[in-house]
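User: Please predict the structure of the protein below. I'd like the answer in structure-token form so I can feed it into my own downstream comparison script.

Assistant: Understood. Taking the following sequence of 59 residues as input:
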Amino acid sequence: MNPGAVQLYADHGIDLAAEPLRNRALCFAHAVYLDAVRFAVASSVGGRGSAVPAGIHVS
């Protein structure tokens, strides 16, 4: 990372030590979401409305 970027982060109060952990959490959440989409497509779910879990009654 160039020194200008480090100063920019410091000016905005962003802790550089926490950034890799934040990125890891975001990547994990993204992977879980994509896996859910993959499962829905593989299960031939037509739309989000047809993906209501069993046992939930929508009136």
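That's the full token string. The radius of gyration is 20 Å.
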